[in-house]
Write a structure and sequence with these properties.
Elements lengths: L9 E10 L2 E7 L3 H7 L6 E2 L6 E2 L12 E5 L5 E6 L10 E3 L14 H4 L8 H5 L6 H13 L30 H10 L24 E3 L4 E2 H9 L5 H8 L12 H12 L3 H4 L13 H5 L16 H6 L3 E5 L2 E6 L7 H14 L2 E4 L4 E6 L3 H8 L12 E7 L5 E11 L2 E6 L4 H14 L7 E4 L4 E7 L3 H5 L3 E2 L12 E7 L2 E7 L7 E7 L3 H12 L5 E2 L2 H10 L40 H4 L4 E8 L11 E2 L13 E9 L4 E9 L8 E5 L5 E7 L15
Parallel strand pairs: 1-7, 12-23
Antiparallel strand pairs: 1-2, 3-4, 5-6, 5-7, 8-9, 10-11, 12-18, 13-16, 13-17, 14-15, 15-16, 18-22, 19-20, 20-21, 21-22, 24-27, 24-29, 25-26, 26-27, 28-29
């Protein structure tokens, strides 16, 4: 209410607003609460459980009763706005909540007459039987009754921004300085006395002393909760819902705590306090989200070649924070046909792939090789400059964390590649060990992911395309064998050229400064026309690598797979004294029989492509719930083999070679598949050595 001579109300200016469709007039500076009270309006809402008529009871953010829906226009509706906090302005539209059909005549008020049926915890006791009623009756009813107000249904058109605030002095703690600061800041009056039930002349059987005005929690409810075994104040809170309304118990918590302590026969400090959770006052989701909505919801990183892919009709998929070309459909092609064509072209002649998203880290310094030896499972001391090695990174638990091809550029410099999604995680892990475990090592770590554009050239004609463009390095098989790296120029651009392959074909990866990425791509496309060069996307990359049994971290591993489980125990330096995760590889659970191991699967029906993530059982006729012994990790149609292929982690998989397992399907049937090795195509690796 207004107090003459106090507050910030401008009596010289009037403001019109509406409440439940009726126009009212207030003064500039009024809150909705003060303006309604000045107009003689006291009924502003209904309580949650009993739908009791509610009026304004406070003057600030602790208000439990006067909750309104407010609207500033299309898409700008906000429920549960406190009338004591919302300033009126011309055109403001407000509405009461939790009533039907109207605020004055609310059918939900019948609950107030039936309050004896709705004591504390009634929902825990009422909706238990018959069990068949839960899905069709109880749950829909509870969901309709839950919550206050109505949720917005339109997109929010507002724009939100955020900034960092700084203070000159921050007082933290409850020492003398903190208490003095709190005493100065606290200018609010009050007795400081908490209350139990107030005196009444009504009979104890019919009197109700409300503690939580919004959730309709009474003193009897709190005492009932104690009688029914609730000893912790947090349990009392949840059993009665005291303090769980939108005001978070600003008015009710301490009084409820006093009643609970009285019922328990303990002092308040012995009972404890409930936890206030931020924000202290309601904050819109928009303020929390800021500019992270729509196209700005999540950062999208694009490679230097992304624009070419978009101009040439690529379909895209998100990979970590990157947008990557998924496949390049031609007229009339769906994804299956496009991927089949890309696979055929790459295996038959020449494919080109944008691999710029791979994580790249430079490890440099006098102790670089020692650092690599400690971080990765592989040995690095004898790797000569100009050579590459597959690197496997474990966690302290011995499980696979990341992998990638690593080139030694000089004695004191390694070019480390990581998975696309693992770049930041691997760098953080390296920094953590370098700074906390091995601060004596002279090593510098530099993220170079966005410094380089990386183009992968794969297929029998890869060397024919590159050889005329490379200056400063003979790339013949004799001079530049598989797993080699060199600094040279490619199409006049400075380059780090790797001879590696993630397809099983003769392959090269060309790294050039990012600003030259698209120019090099276009040059390679133009020169490659004579070999029917075919750009391919991530889906084809997945198929080609799966045909060769190359794993993808996070897809064929799930955080519980060791090198031995994945069939790549050869990547462990057996003679190494130590590396991250080495000790854990000897733990009993890690070497126990029956662990899930990565295997190949070939379906009895070669046309059936298994669903990735599908569970695997040994016997499809066993009673339910069936024992799941593994799941499908990767599954594709192989154009090269003319059939489906899959990889899976299966309990004791290496001992099940040749066995038939079963994959239950959503329609109640199952698909049979034979356990095989993971290398489906060119097991001898002859295609890597094409001249």
């Amino acid at each position: 209410m207004r107090i003459s001579g106090r507050g910030r109300v401008n009596y010289a200016r009037t403001v019109r607003f509406t409440f439940d469709g009726k126009t009212y007039e207030g003064l500039q500076g009024d809150t909705v609460a003060s303006a309604l009270l000045a107009n003689g309006v006291h009924l502003v809402g209904r309580s949650f459980k009993y739908h009791r008529p509610r009026g304004v009871v406070t003057a600030g953010s602790e208000e439990p009763n006067a909750l309104l829906g407010t609207s500033r226009g299309p898409g700008q509706f906000e429920p549960n706005t406190r009338a004591t906090m919302q300033e009126i302005w011309s055109g403001l539209t407000t509405e009461s909540q939790n009533k039907w059909p109207s605020l004055k005549f609310d059918l939900g008020a019948i609950n107030d007459r039936l309050y004896m049926l709705f004591s504390a915890g009634f929902y825990y006791k009422t909706f238990m039987w018959p069990k068949s009623f839960w899905d069709k009756v109880y749950e829909p009813f509870i969901r309709r009754a839950a919550g206050l107000g109505r949720s917005p249904t339109e997109l929010d058109p507002d724009h939100y921004a955020s900034r960092y605030l700084h203070c000159d002095v921050l007082i933290v703690g409850s020492g003398p300085a903190g208490l003095a600061a709190a005493a100065v800041a606290d200018d609010r009056t009050g007795t400081g006395i908490t209350q139990k039930e107030l005196p009444t002349d009504r009979s104890p059987g019919s009197a109700r002393a409300f503690v939580d005005f919004q959730n309709d929690v009474t003193a009897k409810d709190i005492r009932l909760a104690v009688r029914e075994g609730m000893r912790s104040i947090e349990h009392v809170k949840r059993y009665t819902t005291n303090g769980m309304a939108t005001d978070q118990g600003k008015m009710s918590n301490m009084n409820g705590l006093t009643i609970a302590s009285d019922a328990l026969g303990k002092e308040i400090p012995q009972v404890g306090l409930t936890t206030f959770r931020p924000p202290y006052t309601p904050t819109t989701f928009g303020a929390l989200a800021g500019y992270h909505k729509g196209s700005h919801f999540e950062l999208t990183r694009k490679t230097p070649i992304d624009s070419w892919a978009a101009e040439n009709g690529a379909a895209f998929e998100p990979v970590a924070l990157w947008r990557r070309a998924w496949y390049f459909p031609q007229a009339g092609e769906d994804m299956h046909k496009a991927v089949a064509r890309e696979c055929r072209a790459t295996r038959a002649s020449l494919g080109i792939f944008d691999a710029s998203t791979l994580g790249k880290i430079e490890v440099s310094g006098p102790d670089a090789v020692e650092f690599m030896n400690r971080m990765y499972t592989n040995p690095w001391a004898k790797l000569a400059p100009g050579k590459c090695r597959y690197g496997l990174l474990l966690g302290e638990d011995g499980f696979i964390r990341d992998d990638g091809v690593i080139g030694r550029m000089r004695d004191d410099l390694f070019h480390v590649t990581t998975t696309t999604g693992g770049a930041a995680r691997v760098l953080n892990m390296m920094e953590d060990y370098l700074q906390t475990e091995w601060p004596d090592l002279q090593v510098w770590l530099t993220s170079t992911t966005e410094e380089w554009a990386t183009i992968a050239i794969n297929g029998p004609n890869a060397r024919k395309l590159l050889a005329p463009l490379v200056v400063g390095q003979d790339i013949s098989d004799a001079a530049f064998p598989h797993m080699s790296v060199a600094e040279c120029t490619v199409a006049s651009f400075p380059s780090r050229l790797f001879r590696i392959s993630f397809t099983g074909e003769l392959g090269f990866e060309v790294n050039v400064p990012a600003r030259h990425g698209r120019a090099l791509w276009e040059k390679l496309m133009a020169e490659g026309n004579q070999y029917d060069i075919c750009p391919y996307g991530t889906e084809t990359m997945h198929v080609l690598r799966a045909e060769k049994g190359y794993i993808i971290i996070g897809q064929d591993t799930d955080g519980t797979v060791t090198p031995e489980d994945a069939g790549i125990g050869w990547a462990i330096g057996k003679a190494k004294a130590d590396f991250v995760g080495k000790r854990s590889l000897a733990r009993p659970d890690i070497v126990a029989k029956g662990r899930k191991q990565l295997v190949g699967l070939l379906t009895d029906n070669p046309n059936n492509v298994l669903v990735e993530g599908a569970q695997i059982v040994a016997d499809p006729k066993q009673p339910k719930p069936m024992k799941m012994i593994g799941h499908v990790t990767s599954s594709y149609w192989s154009e090269a083999l003319g059939r489906s292929i899959a990889m899976a982690v299966v309990e004791g998989g290496f001992d099940r070679m040749g066995d038939t397992l079963h994959i239950p399907t959503a329609d109640g049937g199952s698909q049979a598949a034979k356990v095989t090795g993971c290398v489906f195509y060119d097991p001898a690796g002859d295609r890597l050595k094409v001249d």
